[in-house]
Amino acid sequence: MEKKIKVLIAKPGLDGHDRGAKVVAMALRDAGMEVIYTGLRQSPEDIAKAALQEDVDIVGLSILSGAHMKLCPRVLDFMKQYGIADKPIFVGGIIPEDDAEELKRIGIFEVFGPGTSLEKIIDSIRKRVK
């Protein structure tokens, strides 16, 4: 029996819009993954702690507030502090192309913008985790 991919979906910062995060979480669950959703308004440190405690394979951040260039590096830093920098992180939200390229440069494995198909997200996660 194949081990399920374990995904943490988190909403960092003060962004209160979580419909997209919940849709992605349900799609990942329906695709056979184990999904932990942290809920709204999580600090970067809390997200890294949850990733460590839950021993996830991958972390997804949903950011619609425009604070992605501040929040993503902080999540990466805390994951490094907790010894889990090897866990890939993907981000979803309204993120300009230049910012998406910079996020990938600093260690985010993928950035999914509005309109990205759920199948593409699922396939990307499966390829990255395996």
UniProtKB/TrEMBL annotation:
Its cofactor is adenosylcob(III)alamin. SUPFAM superfamilies: Cobalamin (vitamin B12)-binding domain (SSF52242). Coiled coil: none annotated. Pfam families: B12-binding (PF02310). InterPro entries: Acid_CoA_mut_C, Cobalamin-bd, Cobalamin-bd_sf. Keywords: Cobalamin, Cobalt, Isomerase, Metal-binding. GO terms for molecular function: cobalamin binding; isomerase activity; metal ion binding. Residues 4-130 form the B12-binding domain. NCBIfam families: acid_CoA_mut_C. This is Methylmalonyl-CoA mutase.
